[in-house]
Design brief:
Structural class: alpha/beta
Largest sheet: 7 strands, parallel
CATH class of the largest domain: Alpha Beta
Shape: globular
Oligomer: single chain
Number of helices: 12
Order of helices and strands: HHHEHEHEHEEHHEHEHHH
Radius of gyration: 21 Å
Strand order of the largest sheet: 3-2-4-1-5-6-7
Helix content: 40-55%
Number of strands: 7
Length: about 300
């Protein structure tokens, strides 16, 4: 593995691809792998692109790639696809939509299966973004599945989260219920040529003034975009860069707490996955019956895992 990591860090795309496959398959010594790349991370700008199905996430991601490449930036893309119900693998629709970048050495697109994750994020997503970062990508774009009200995990990975809606997304009140007002750093009303786009933009702006984030030092912009015609994408990139500049400033308590929250979530994610692996190993050697008290059995498992239970 050390040789593979060394090749990846020197710019070998094949080594990068193999390491991503290893991370997604949860094979090999992931702890050693991520420890080896951690010290090379921290330079890439991570952008999350999320929103309901059909909002145009892939089209907008494709346009963002093109604009970033024109600026001479290298781009890694993690496209979270709905997993196949049979194989668990990723459906490669996003790759197909981004084919014009397939031969560009400055772009690396990888589809990951969501594998049942409710937050629209594959469990390997965070590690893959770190591999892209260590590889030297300037930007990492993470496009989520688009499962609507549960897409909150992206804010624990991305530096800047872009939420895409359309005039057909429904009453803007539903957006508030979905918690999207809390996670978005930039709003995009895509397909802005359709009826209702200016109204949705106005409603979102009004709701943002009443949201808990209204007191934030960062004012969330609401942009009208036609991604398929590449209209408004330049303004979106400017908004993303403005947010990055805001994060680089001494924004005080708000930015510090955001960094602490992301660090906590990463540690929690690692611990929970390890516990799940150990629990499955214990369960595989324990025949359960319908008559047993599941709470009592759970306490037994906690003792085996050397964790204190609750009475």
């Amino acid at each position: 593995m050390d040789d593979l990591v060394a090749k990846m860090l020197s710019g070998d795309r094949l080594a990068l691809s193999r390491l991503i496959s290893q991370v997604e398959a949860r094979s090999g010594d992931l702890v050693a792998l991520m420890a080896a790349v951690q010290k090379r991370c921290g330079k890439a700008v991570k952008i999350g692109v999320t929103g309901p199905p059909g909002a145009g996430k892939s089209t907008l991601t494709d346009k963002l790639i093109a604009h970033l490449r024109k600026k001479g930036k290298t781009v890694g893309v993690v496209a979270i696809d709905p997993s196949s119900p049979f194989s668990g693998g990723a459906v490669l629709g996003d790759r197909i939509r981004m084919q014009e970048h397939a031969g560009d050495e400055g772009v690396f697109i990888r589809s990951l299966g969501s594998r049942g994750s409710l937050g629209g994020i594959s469990r390997a997503t965070r590690e893959v973004t770190k591999l892209f970062d260590a590889f030297g990508m300037d930007y990492v774009l993470v496009e989520t599945v688009g499962v609507g009200q549960t897409e909150l995990d992206i804010m624990e990975i991305a530096d800047t989260t872009v939420v895409i809606l359309t005039p057909e997304s429904g009453d803007a009140i539903q957006t508030l219920k979905a918690g999207i007002l809390e996670i978005a750093d930039v709003f995009v009303v895509n397909k802005a040529d359709r009826d209702g786009a200016p109204l949705m933009q106005a409603e979102l702006k009004a709701m943002l003034e009443l949201s808990p984030r209204a007191a934030s030092q960062w004012t969330q912009p609401v942009l009208l975009v036609q991604a398929n015609k590449d209209q408004g994408v330049h303004e979106l990139l400017n908004a993303i860069e403005d947010h990055q500049a805001f994060l680089r400033q001494d924004a005080g308590k708000e930015t510090a707490e955001r960094k602490r929250r992301i660090a906590r979530e990463e540690v929690k994610e690692i611990v929970l996955e390890e516990l799940g692996t150990r629990l499955n190993a214990v369960l595989s050697h324990r025949a359960l019956t319908e008559e047993e008290n599941p709470y009592q059995v759970a306490q037994e498992f906690l003792k085996v895992l050397k964790m204190p239970g609750k009475n």
